[in-house]
From TrEMBL:
<keyword id="KW-1208">Phospholipid metabolism</keyword>
<comment type="similarity">
    <text>Belongs to the diacylglycerol/lipid kinase family.</text>
</comment>
<keyword id="KW-0444">Lipid biosynthesis</keyword>
<keyword id="KW-0547">Nucleotide-binding</keyword>
<keyword id="KW-0808">Transferase</keyword>
<feature type="domain" description="DAGKc">
    <location>
        <begin position="1"/>
        <end position="135"/>
    </location>
</feature>
<dbReference type="InterPro" id="IPR016064">
    <property type="entry name" value="NAD/diacylglycerol_kinase_sf"/>
</dbReference>
<protein>
    <submittedName>
        <fullName>Diacylglycerol kinase</fullName>
        <ecNumber>2.7.1.107</ecNumber>
    </submittedName>
</protein>
<dbReference type="InterPro" id="IPR017438">
    <property type="entry name" value="ATP-NAD_kinase_N"/>
</dbReference>
<dbReference type="Pfam" id="PF00781">
    <property type="entry name" value="DAGK_cat"/>
</dbReference>
<dbReference type="Pfam" id="PF19279">
    <property type="entry name" value="YegS_C"/>
</dbReference>
<keyword id="KW-0067">ATP-binding</keyword>
<dbReference type="InterPro" id="IPR050187">
    <property type="entry name" value="Lipid_Phosphate_FormReg"/>
</dbReference>
<keyword id="KW-0594">Phospholipid biosynthesis</keyword>
<keyword id="KW-0443">Lipid metabolism</keyword>
<dbReference type="GO" id="GO:0005886">
    <property type="term" value="C:plasma membrane"/>
</dbReference>
<keyword id="KW-0460">Magnesium</keyword>
Amino acid sequence: MTSEITLFVNPTAGRGRGARAAQPAASALRAAGFSVRTVLGENAREALTRARAAVAAGTDALVAVGGDGMAGLALQAVAGTDTPLGLVAVGTGNDFARALGLPVRDPAAAGRTVAEALKGARVRDVDLGRVGGTWFGTVLASGFDSRVNDRGNRMRWPSGRFRYDLAMLAELAAFTPFPYRITLDDGEVRETEATLVAVGNGPSYGGGMRICADADLTDGLFDITVVGPCSRASLLRVFPQVYKGTHLNHPMVTTHRATKIELAADDITAYADGERLGPLPLTAECVRGAVRVAGP
């Protein structure tokens, strides 16, 4: 009997790369002997409803085609089930795919990798973060970086990444550290001023910024990076180090590991996998082995 795979497609990902990537990914899966059914929706809610229906109907795998937003949407359908997740990463960031060692912006290679993993039973369990009923695979961001997201999302011009570059400059001009209240597994309440607090299930966000560089998707723990209060000049000096993860050695940066974190701060919105979660306070927990993934 031929196994059926559900291809979960965002046609607008990467300025249309999602739609273009679906065909070579589907061809690679069919060449490996799988039957492929495509699911998409006119909006995120409709697409997720259809993906959940495919999982409930017993699809052998859900393969998301798009960026981190599409991967995050797929997680809401497969987390806590036995249905494996495959990723064909063609978005802007692709941080979850990178963390899993999957091909990025090569849909045919990604399709072959997923097919080979499924045929060879190379499926592994990895951890996810959870806030209420929402799952995330990479990083929960709060503070300066989430303020940049807020401002960028309000801007109508320019388009693409440049919008967020301008948003960062605008936020930097008005920047002051934020008073946080942080509670970890030990129950001790830490009250501190911080530039940002990042909660990492995976190591990176924003297309390779290794804000939680040592995070491990299989250890059952969050890596938490707290960037303390700093001047605009210090922030500009440290920022480039995030791409290599060397910022973790800076004296204004502290790190923690925990299975659960409670974050509270006034007028701060949290984002996870690049998508808006909602305002603080919130509680995030790391759930060991919450999703099965097909890959190397």
